[in-house]
Amino acid sequence: MDLYEKFCALPIDHAALGFELRSHYENYYCTPQNARILGCAGVDGIHYCTVPELGETVFAVSPMNFGDCVHPIAKSFSELLGFLLFCGDMAAIEQSYAWDEEQFKAFLLDCPPTEEQKSALELMARELCLEPDENTFAHIKALQADFDPSSVPYTEDYYDPDMNPSAPEKKEWSVTFDGGFWSDNGRPGREIPLGKSFFWGGEKWHVPAVHLCDEGLVIDLVAETEKKLHFTPELAVNRVCLRTRHGTGLFHSPDAPDGDAVFVLEHYSLPTDRAMSIHRWSMSSKEKLPDELTGLTLCLSRSPERLPCGEFTTPAPFQTVTLTHPLTGAGFELTVIETEQKSFEQSDFHSPKYEYPTCFTAMSYTLTPEPEGTDFYLADADPGDPPRKNRAPQNSFRPEASGFAAAIGIIGGADGPTAICIGAGSKKLRTACSSLCFEHRDEVHWKAYFIEKLTEDKVITLL
To answer: How many CB atoms are located within 10 Å of the residue 401 CB?
Structure first.
């Protein structure tokens, strides 16, 4: 017998606590699809339920609140009973979405539990081994703040204006070449179901469909993963490669559902109870594609990854640092040849509005033995100083540059430290530069990486 069944079996008047039990419950226009109704308030059609797609979360459904009918009130039925023991009645819990903490406390003071309610609450706490939750309001508000209302699956009645005067416009499935996930810009394509699944790079992948548009093909790729994925798709029809135009992505977490992601997953009947990385790519062809596709092949290529192999502070010239390749265990000696503090000119950045950091440390070094079949990357662990607004008075009649130009190449990206490679005089001599700062630093802390392609390309026949 689960906790809910034990609660129902208690010899108390459940209706006195605002949790009336009935043998049959009426579904309202706003009752979520497939909802399991647990009880009701007995007034205004208010009822409490769980929804299979949304786990153990308990919801309050208030049909009279047109347009704002469904709110989560507890992460589980056990948590809900802890709230009920604290409040003494379900009314405060159901209405808390519209209150601040002072209003919540005022309601509890104005409506203290009756003797009948106290007796029922004491029996419930004793028989079910539960305690009142002193932080009821904070827990409810935190749950509601993190909840995505668009994740609630409604029936067709909810979108019927005759039954719901505040019915939102139901989102229709429409995939266009330039629309991504959020727009129906252009003529919708014709969906061609594929239903392909495979494993690649440690994740399970799905190719549910492609969409044939006037401009080319749109393909949806879904990976079951919690990681950020970097990959490149290639699509061919009868061995003729299509040109990748653009792509976009969504991420779905069951703990914090994204409405657009849930909409895509539900359309393809893919699970929403696990993390999903969803990608949509648009591919064009020089010639119009045939109405009936044959010989459809997908090739996936994953970007090389940076593998940390050591950290060190700039050694003196001709001192060495030992590095170990994390995959092969091979040892390498990094020998510093020379370090020099250098600076760019502020004019190199062509920006009248911003002052850019110009100071950096250049370090030349060798790596022994020379890596074969792999790339090596040296980065400053400090991201450097950001640009700052130029406080000097500006001449309003002076033309301003519309963009920034730099005399250096930045290696790296927004997800980590950057290093500046100026080049090397020979294959054996390597040069790396620290991040830019407004003042020279006495020491630079370096991070070393080997760059390896860890995942082999994958070719999948779709049609």
So the answer is: 11
